[in-house]
Design brief:
With about 180 residues, the protein is an alpha+beta fold. Strands 1, 2, 3, 4, 5, 6 and 7 form a seven-stranded mixed sheet that branches. It is built from two helices and seven strands.
């Protein structure tokens, strides 16, 4: 067993790997890694990075201990962290970075945008519909109890050089709720 953060990252990588296994080129992803890419990213097929927190803004997207839960918390979950007899509730946060290198395909801008949106959509769908995240429990008793609002926000942008060499960059901010009782 491992700490909850490692288990969540492994589940995210597995969900993304499964989702992109059936994608067709150029919307496929050949490399899904934990942390930053070490190899030449353009040599990979649309590599995806999974990070704990946000490596680009380490102070902004961190795990948070909750003092109280949102109003839509399911029945039976602790209502406050510091309540007598209550448990600890956390928001565990991660970032999925999408790197879409369309520099060899010879795509026009509209086609590059379509591929970028496909990659983004596949990743969003995989995270929203994860069956691996809910119920994960680590060796210390911390357990994921909610993934309903796991996508906090996302962004995509297309850069590169016309006429047919494009680079898409995207980021998806993911959060899940856990508790320790």
């Amino acid at each position: 067993m491992a700490f909850i953060v490692s288990l969540i990252q492994d589940a995210i990588v597995a969900d993304l790997t499964d989702a992109f296994a059936t994608a067709t080129s150029p919307s496929t992803s050949g490399e899904i890694v934990l942390g930053r890419l070490m190899a030449d990213p353009e040599g990979e097929e649309n590599p995806i990075e999974v990070h704990e927190n946000d490596p680009d803004n380490p102070e902004e997207w961190v795990h948070m201990q909750c003092v109280s839960l949102p109003g839509w918390a399911p029945a039976g979950t602790p209502s406050a962290t510091h309540e007598i007899g209550g448990g600890e509730t956390w928001v565990r946060r991660f970032t999925v970075k999408l790197n879409i290198f369309l520099t060899r395909e010879g795509l026009e801008r509209d086609d590059a945008i379509t591929v970028m949106n496909d990659v983004h959509g596949i990743a969003m769908h995989a995270l929203r519909n994860s069956t691996r995240l809910l119920g994960i429990t680590d060796q210390y008793g911390e357990s994921i109890w909610m993934t309903r609002h796991c996508i906090a926000k996302s962004e995509m942008s297309l850069g590169g050089g016309p006429p047919t060499s494009w680079i898409g960059r995207g980021k998806i901010w993911v959060q899940v709720w856990s508790s320790l009782e």
